[in-house]
Amino acid sequence: MATSTERLATLEQRLTDHESRCEERLGEIKATSAATLRAVEGLKGRAWGVVAALMTWALAQLWSENARRLEELDRTLPIATGSGLQRLAMTSQPQPARGAATTEIPE
To answer: Do 102 and 96 meet the contact criterion of CB atoms below 8 Å apart?
Structure first.
């Protein structure tokens, strides 16, 4: 039968072993959490990159549509020249709006 000092020594050894295992696990947890934090920061940076790219694309779409409308206006509206007003590419009949019903009566 083990004496109380042997039992106490065994208990202290178990406690020391437990503490060392806990320190190892804590070190692994810290390393894993640091790696996870770096990964999340990287993803946030990439997400901002995607947001910037989408904003750039959307602005390019708006700019190209605006440029198309300005070209259309340039073709249909009068412009000022040195000798007066000049009309370019005016149509003789107004075009109906998209989706508008026509009211032509067949003959």
So the answer is: yes
CB 85 within 8 A of CB 79: yes
Reported as type and span, the H/E element at residue 85 is strand 84-86
Full-model pTM = 0.45
CA quadruple 57, 59, 61, 66: dihedral, nearest 10: -170
Q: Shortest CA distance to 90 belongs to which of 102, 65, 72?
A: 72
pLDDT tens for each residue of 49-78: 999 999 999 999 999 988 888 888 877 876
DSSP 94: P
